[in-house]
Amino acid sequence: MRSLDSKQVEQVLQNYSKLEPIQLLLSEQFNHVAGRKHADINKLYLCHATQFFPEQGIIYPRLNFQFNEKNSLYFNEHYSRSISILFSILRPSVHFSLNSLANPHGEHSGFGENPYIIIDPLVASAQIVGGYIEDMFTFGSYTLTNQATILVPHTRKELIQEKILNLPKGAVISYYDNYEEAMRQFFAKKNSAYLDTPQMQDDPAEPIFYGKLGSAFVSSLEINKQISRRFCTHDITPFAQIESIFAGNKVYNQAPFFEALSTPQVNISTLLSSYLTCIKNNFSLNAEQNNFLDKYKLILGELISIARDSNSINELIEKVNFHEAIFISYDHTISLDKIIPEQQSALLLSSITNLKFNAYYRYGSNRTLVDAAYLIDDSIKEEQLLSLFSTTLTLGFILENHNGRSYIVLKDINLEKVADSIKSRFNDYKQPYLSL
Known about the structure:
Blueprint: H1 6-14, H2 20-30, E1 45-50, E2 58-59, H3 77-89, E3 93-98, E4 116-121, E5 130-132, E6 135-139, E7 142-143, E8 149-153, H4 161-164, E9 172-176, H5 179-189, E10 210-213, E11 216-219, H6 220-226, E12 230-231, H7 238-247, H8 250-253, H9 268-282, H10 287-308, H11 313-322, H12 324-328, H13 344-353, E13 358-361, E14 370-375, H14 382-393, E15 398-402, E16 405-410, H15 416-428
Parallel strand pairs: 5-12, 8-9
Antiparallel strand pairs: 1-3, 1-4, 2-7, 3-6, 4-8, 5-6, 10-11, 13-14, 14-16, 15-16
Helix pairs in contact: 1-9, 3-11, 7-9, 9-10, 13-15
């Protein structure tokens, strides 16, 4: 189901469970569990394995892409690393299995040895946008709930002690020697079980849409219906089409890069924009996910601009490497270690709102990106304040939680486009916008 344009993607998403091959798979699989009762959704947990500890309680969408140099005309480590960065930009989703860890379905998936295992109750999270039992996913980063558990290998115990302090209150750390045994023990304590997903197909990459939780039946179709999310596989989503588009070797062979993707009718920027619109039309997204999509669109635009301005593959590589910090940190959170004094955009925001905004660098940006943050007073309802900020100032504010405190954050205030928007609001109004 690859290489679909945005209209085709929309049709497939809206009719996914009715597609003939999907109907056939559902029918074949569900015959194995006829007469079983459905599992209690409160006993289902999102499970994610990673080599990266979820700092600040956040899982970032990073694909561990290893470029296959043997298939490349450009056989060198420098090129390989650049393409790995590029594909990390193009995987802006975080993936989970229910009550289990899914087997890798591709050469670029997998979680290595001694991973961190993040477990979160399905019903506690409103961030999942759809999927099926082996691959539930969200767009953008995933923030752990206060009911999360992180299974940590004993070998990494000393490495995480300071990081634990910045996890959501209520999150639990448990250490293990064998992660599968630790997961089974966790589920047993929760009166649940490790999900059994029988492999019936000849092709191991084919999705399994059902599983067994003890004597109960777990249906991908039914689960998504209960949480009002979209039943589908990641490979037919608009993001998967974007990944597929950029995966073609032809786009790297000669300058202008990516232009091979354009046609007389549609250029690459319009094509990508149509996929992102398709996402908004077909998935239930919260405000933060919508903001993420807007930022992702800008990042893709920057990427295309860099490619257009590069006259050789080496120049493209150098520019991708140079801008790496901005590319891979666009979804990270503020670093509260030190306030940046007298930052102009933060001062203007404080003047406009009559509230104290401080400027901070962003984690992972190597001091290339600056965000403004206001620490919300406990007496103020944070969602109400965020709505007021967003609708009145029409800037892309988001909420972030650090050490149990909530902040209103505006990202990228040192970038020209955002800084100019703040100046425009300041020039239009000679008194504070808000009255709290």
